[in-house]
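Recall that a protein's primary structure is simply its ordered list of amino acids. Everything else, from secondary elements to tertiary packing, is in principle encoded there. The following example makes that idea concrete.
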Amino acid sequence: MSQVVLASTPDRTQGLKRALEALSFEPVKGRDVLIKPNFNTADPCPGSTDNETLAALIDLLWELGAGSISLGERSYPPTREVIEGKGVAALLQEREVRLLDFDRLPEKDWLPFNPPGSHWPEGFRVARPVVEADYLVEACCLKTHQYGGVFTMSLKLAVGTVPTGRHGFKYMDQLHSSPHQRRMIAEINTAFRPKLVVLDGVEAFVDGGPMTGTRKRTEVTLAASDRVALDAVGVAVLKTAGSNRAIMEPRIFDQEQIARAAELGLGASSAREIELLAAGEASQARRDEVAEVLARG
């Protein structure tokens, strides 16, 4: 069984703290942590990881005994512009977090992968710091994706580990022009495995996305070690909120990102393999609502 913890609260810091307190996950103590956020653009959450959520996550990781903490990202615009636009440089410096701008990686640090049955024409490359991370933590948002992804949560976060045209590669052109885009997203995830995934669902895009969209207050925080299980629960949350047809009509485990990731053995392959836990009594009713939708598909 894959544990996913749901905390129901509008308070991002408390939600994250309660979710991690209720989740069983690999100890952080003494480990060199790499955080992969959702900094696709500098748009406000859920367009990108909220600064309050990021600060709370960093503080909790230090409290759990992290040996060091770095943050690594490759954004859609130049990464440095997004970091400046979000105003997180000072936040990272104050908390002694090293910033890894993947735009500055040399070609040798984009590692090649071509998993069996891949829908990528000649495989893909992934940033070495992510592949070789001692303890990888993903911080994602809850939102739909209007450009073919359908939704962007933990699995879709992997796209920000692959180089772009400005790095001399054509992977993004291949991804966005392919009818297999959702399967290709899942396949990137074979290159690495996070130890911990957190999702800020205090506010969601139920249509549009990934930068801007139709907002709705969903007031949940999710935490898990299983990317597939977390995304399945995230889709269930979007269904409870009322989303677009691409979310509402297909069954959760028929979503191509999730189905392909499950086929690749990256996580849960059905709702029966997910143990959805409430982060305390105050979250029980919301947990039950989401669990019903998850079980129904």
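The chain has one domain: 2-296. The longest helix spans residues 227-241.
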